[in-house]
Design goal:
With 127 residues, the protein is of the alpha+beta class. The chain has helices at residues 17-27, 50-59, 82-90, 118-124; strands at 2-10, 32-37, 42-47, 65-75, 95-102, 108-115. Helix content is 29%, strand content 38%. The termini are close together.
Length: 127
């Protein structure tokens, strides 16, 4: 598990907007590690170079906020995430939201967890 910086911005609900953001990041050689897009237009991204990504998105007039989150690779198997979440809960750290995914062809999944105290959660989970 690592503490990474998540970028958050609001997108208009119209065709091509997400594609444009992804193209902008691709043109800057920024790799998206994880993302979630809510129906409200709230886009959350974890990328390999958050400084570059935030700068280029702000340069395109997006209001970008940053937040520290936990990013972990876990076994893509039933119950694999539960022990980590139990340790975080036992440390008294609240999970605000989480997202992630895996594929049928990989034995690992990537999970992003936003908590109220990333350092305490990371220490509690032994990472």
């Amino acid at each position: 598990m690592a503490i990474r910086t998540e970028l958050s911005l609001r997108l208009a609900n119209s065709p091509g907007v997400l594609s444009t953001v992804c193209r902008i990041l691709s043109d800057e050689r920024v790799n998206v590690i994880a993302m979630t897009l809510e129906s409200s237009g709230q886009l959350r991204l974890v990328v390999d170079n958050h400084v570059r990504a935030a700068g280029v998105l702000r340069g395109r007039h997006h209001q970008v906020t940053e937040r520290e989150v936990l990013v972990s690779s876990v076994s893509h198997a039933p119950g694999a995430l539960a022990p980590m979440l139990r340790l975080i809960a036992e440390a008294g750290v609240n999970v605000d939201y989480a997202y992630g995914g895996g594929t049928d062809v990989s034995d690992m999944a990537t999970i992003v967890i936003a908590v109220d105290d990333p350092r305490r959660a990371s220490a509690a989970a032994g990472m």
